[in-house]
Design goal:
The protein is an alpha+beta fold. It contains nine helices and four strands. Strands 1, 2, 3 and 4 form a four-stranded mixed β-sheet that branches. The model has no long low-confidence stretch (mean pLDDT about 85).
């Protein structure tokens, strides 16, 4: 499993510790934005735990019940995380904001809020940098959004987007607390919660879209499939290759179905050895391809 656990663990520790301090500050000051931020960090902590569960379960070896392995467990849990960000994080933030607008409460002393928000920005910023570095290492020169669409490892971009939402939400909460206290108007604090909810909803939509695509099954890139076809045609036993079928069962596990037409004059012994050699060449050139099924076609097809 190629999924990197470092960004997940760093985000888990940061979010859990920050959630505790945010709730303490919210209880001391009555800030709606701080309550929303505390819920946000607590939900994120749970999300990291679910991602770790997905990483562990997806690494289970294939068995009689799941002959192709458990790789898609990771995609399932990534999708659950995106739903939780929307339903719990975004929903409760909206609720807290609206409730605060209906029952306004002016923040009397925002000092604790500023201390907690400042510390949270530092720790969440560190976690974001770790996730961003890992994401950039994987994408190389690939454009950012293209890599998000291409990536088959949801742990990295889920944590990356969570941390980005954390940092952005913290700045929104800071503005809400500052403006609410400066103008003695709780409207700003309530609106900050609603804005945080909108941020979480957008992030959840992006993550759900990408996780859904992975869960439904994605294929190898067209350029990779073309290289596999070219490799097959370079052998002395294959005369024609039709469009291969492939599907990701996990970040580093692909099943490949290869319809190929072989030389009609090839002997049975050479045919079996040729197929074995072809599979070995493909798996060596493309390590992500773990299972290869070759469908021999007659020359008349």
């Amino acid at each position: 499993m190629t999924s990197s656990k470092l960004p997940v663990y760093s985000a888990l520790v940061a979010n859990f510790l920050i959630a505790i301090t945010k709730f303490i500050a919210a209880a001391a000051t009555g800030s709606s934005a701080m309550i929303s931020e505390g819920i946000h960090s607590l939900v994120d902590s749970g999300n990291e735990i679910l991602l770790l569960v997905g990483i562990k379960r997806s690494s289970k070896p294939a068995d009689a019940e799941r002959p192709f392995g458990y790789g898609r467990e990771l995609y399932f849990w990534a999708f659950i995380v995106s739903v939780l960000i929307f339903a719990v994080g975004g929903g409760i933030s909206f609720y807290e904001g609206v409730t605060h607008l209906q029952h306004p409460h002016v923040i009397q002393d925002p000092q604790w809020n500023y201390i907690v928000l400042g510390a949270a920005i530092v720790f969440d910023g560190i976690s974001f940098i770790i996730a961003l570095r890992e994401f950039n290492r994987q994408r190389g020169s690939t454009p950012f959004w293209e890599q998000v669409r291409r990536s088959k490892d949801p742990t990295i971009f889920v944590v990356l987007f969570e941390d980005a939402a954390d940092v952005l939400g913290l700045f929104v909460a800071f503005l809400g607390v500052f403006l609410g206290h400066a103008f003695r108007n709780p409207f700003f604090d309530g609106c900050a919660s609603i804005v945080i909810g909108a941020i979480l909803t957008f992030i959840a939509w992006v993550l759900a879209r990408e996780s859904r695509s992975l869960l439904m099954g994605e294929t190898l890139q067209p350029a990779t499939l073309e290289k596999i076809m070219a490799l097959c045609l370079s052998t002395d036993i294959v005369v024609k290759v039709e469009d291969p079928l492939s599907i990701y069962m996990g970040p580093d596990e692909v099943i490949l179905i290869l319809p190929a037409t072989f030389r009609p004059d090839i002997e049975a012994r050479d045919f079996q050895r040729g197929i074995s050699d072809l599979k070995h060449e493909i798996s060596t050139a493309f390590p992500v391809v773990k299972r290869i099924f070759i469908e021999p076609r007659s020359a008349g097809n």
